[in-house]
Amino acid sequence: MTNSVNRTSEALSDSSYLPSREAMARRRQRRYLADGAARWMVRAGGGGVVIALALIFVYLFSEVVPLLRGATVEPAYSYELPAGASEETPLLGLERYGEIVMRYSASGRLFYFERDTGALLEEIDLNIPPGVSVTSFGNGEPRSRRTVFGLSDGTAIVVDHEFELQFPEEGVRVVAPAPVFPVGDAPVVVDEDGVALTAITVQAAREDIGVAAQSADGRMLFVRYQVKTNFMTGDQQIERRAYELPTLLEPVEHLQLSANLWNLIGADQQGNLIYWDISRPGDALLRDRQIASEAGEQITAMQFLNGTFSFVVGTSSGRLAQWFLVRDETEDAGDNIFFLEQAREFSRHDGAITAIQPEYSRKGFVAVDDSGGLGIHYGTSARTLYLKQVSDRPLTAVAVSPVNNHVVAQDDQGRIHGFSVWNEHPEYSLKALWGKVWYEGRSDPEYVWQASSGSDAFEPKYSMVPLTIGTLKAAFFAMLFAMPLAIAGAIYTAYFMSPRLRGFVKPTIEVMEALPTVILGFLAGLWLAPFIENHIPVVFTVLVGLPVAFLLVAYLFSRLPRHVRNRVPPGWEAVFLLPVIVGVTWLMVSLSPLIEIWFFDGSMRQWFTDIGITYDQRNALVVGIAMGFAVIPTIFSIAEDAVFTVPKHLTQGSLALGATAWQTVTMVVLLTASPGIFSAVMIGFGRAVGETMIVLMATGNSPVLNFNIFEGMRTLSANIAVELPETAVGSTHFRILFLAGLVLFAITFVVNTIAEIVRQRLRARYSNL
Predict the structure, then answer these.
(1) Which of 94, 454, 664, 701 has its CA 20 to 30 A from that of 759?
(2) How far is the C-alpha of 120 from the C-alpha of 118, rounded, in Å?
(3) pLDDT at residue 625 is higher than 70
(4) Average pLDDT for residues 419-433, to the nearest whole number?
(5) Where do transmembrane segments lie in this chain (predicted)?
(6) Residue 111: inside a domain, yes or no?
């Protein structure tokens, strides 16, 4: 018997299912390798995400870095003037290609010489009658290339410094001077009394040429010349219309005329600025007079910037200030009444300002002073991009190339100094992007985004504030709509709903996340926005009607007999609310016209207008609803998982201690799931901040600065999507759009970082439950 038992034990030992030691060692080794590979793959994936984000940040920042540079000025050449060095130079100029320097002398001679070598190319004497001398000089804005010489007999010669291209052989381009005399090379009459013109200016407005001047006896004159050409014979006929303006007691030293020939600005010896309204020359008015100088100062230079909406004044103490006309909006001012207002000042030069030359296509200008200083400034951004002494002698004239890459200056000894310039992005400054800026034509400093216009004289407005506020506004209203529905739905689905119904509802809501946002934006813009506009009361009545209907149905359900209520399976109560939702919504839509008639005189939109509330068809309300539907699946899915994974022993223990289901949810479940719910909200907020297509199609894309739910907005992401394909690569606009992307990236990063910190603290606080 004993032997039989031993043989059985040996057989069992031989037929044991336990693996050998070698097999177990091999299994452990494979498990360790798999765990190590998985661990490194997770690390590599996480590291890859971090590297990708870092590379995105580096790329965005690399596109933004050039905005931070100021102007770079490098000396290029220096030589003596080729001719007429002893004559005063009221104007220097460069043609488009920067190959030829043009110099006007105070005696009425035009000199053209090579920019780099100073070799004289051509010298032209104006057709000045014998015994008549030049007594004044004026010029229009740089784009017009128009100048005027006032003469001692009350006449003037108008000259356009044009150039023509010649191609003597293939591949060879020659730029040749070709001055144009738009009203003839002979002097034209300005003052019929023949009195010398002591101050003069010129401007072109379509077919008219305007000349404003002050005569030696103090009279202010304005003359419009209209050149008419006979298309059959080619003969030109000049029509002259002369007007006398309100006269000043003191002489004017500087005059500037706006491009539309409506405004005349003068500066006298006492440092005053004078503004004449000549929009109706026959009834011209002296509108305003302002002191533009400090004690002991004189105005030494004055020039309109590009577009002739604003002008820069330079003084004998080196001060530079930008002025423009501001509309008087007082009730008794009437329409189109303007007054002079100083908008900003620039860095002060060490010497008296001797010349100001505006840029051809931007709101910048170059100024020189009698200490040899050269300054490059920009109006809108209020930046002084470069200010250094470049000569040991006083500089008396300056020119900037039409493409803003070259500057030529002349000193008082007749020497030319040339400089190569890098000044690509003067429009940028922190104040221009994030502070209030006083733009031309505006009554006050404002936050404005308007990157382009059909006018060549347009002033770009790059304030990021309306876009950032618009982004937060869209996200706020979307979260206001999505958070209550998503979180409440997640709590009910995870805790109260029956498993069978949950298995249908949860996947359905998660599938909503796969719906393209372009479809939601399309529906919001073409259907939802007009529907809400036509049924505005529905928005408010549904918000009140549905909760009241739910409470009423709940009360009626509680009054039913117990055996009837018991027939409804636990967790299926929500199904019976679906007909209530549909019925109440249909009822409110049907009552909407009647509500408007009863309470809002037939139109709630007009009622909003009457009480001062702007209503746009595509507004933040539409965006909130449409983008809310896009955000709900994200918040719902994460929050539902957080609530559903709350340990059962916590809820069961709470119920066992006598707490109701609602008390258990509010006091146990929500606290335990709060880290996950908060993460869901923050991820949903980040999703809303970065949304593009819905806000692009359903907001109207108006960069307004308010939180009015009935007005639209423009977001950072939508602005990038709209404007980036149309902007020039490498331009300031292009780089500021990349800066907008960097701001969007930073907002998302900050939100996610705060969310993670709060989530970790909530997790640590409630982990002991």
Answers:
(1) 664
(2) 6
(3) yes
(4) 92
(5) 40-61, 474-497, 509-529, 535-557, 577-600, 620-639, 660-685, 734-755
(6) no
Residue 264 lies in a domain: no
Share of the chain above pLDDT 90, in %: 52
480 lies in a domain? Answer: yes
| Phi/psi of residue 626, nearest 5 degrees | -65, -45
Report the distance separating Cα 455 and Cα 439, nearest Å.
15
Q: What are phi and psi of 675, to 5 degrees?
A: -60, -45
Q: Give the strand order in the sheet containing 395-400.
A: 72-80, 415-422, 406-411, 395-400
Three-state secondary structure of 462-507: ECCHHHHHHHHHHHHHHHHHHHHHHHHHHHHHHHHCCHHHHHHHHH
pLDDT, tens digit (0-9, with 9 covering 90-100), for 62-121: 999 999 888 899 999 999 998 888 889 999 999 888 889 999 999 999 999 999 999 999
Q: How many residues does the chain have?
A: 769
Res 1 pLDDT > 60: no
> How large is the greatest C-alpha to C-alpha distance in the chain, in angstroms?
154
Number of domains observed in the structure of the chain: 1
- Cross-strand partners of 225: 209, 240
The distance from CA 271 to its chain's CA centroid, rounded to whole angstroms, is 36
Q: Cα dist. 737→61, 162, 425 in Å? A: 12, 37, 13
Residue 276 has pLDDT above 80, yes or no: yes
Tokens of 399: 């020119």
Q: Which residue's structure tokens are 């019976």?
A: 576
Model pLDDT for residues 215-260, shown as the tens digit of each residue: 999 899 999 998 887 766 667 788 899 999 998 878 999 999 999 9
CATH number at residue 476: 1.10.3720
Task: Give the long-range contacts of residues 159-168, CB within 8 A, separation 24 or more.
Answer: 159/104, 159/110, 159/126, 161/93, 161/95, 161/102, 161/104, 161/110, 163/95, 163/96, 163/100
The residue range of the domain holding 710 is 465-726
Q: Are strands 320-327 and 163-166 parallel, antiparallel or unpaired?
A: unpaired
Structure tokens at 602: 């037939």
Cβ neighbors of 533 (< 8 A, separation 6 or more) are 605, 615, 617
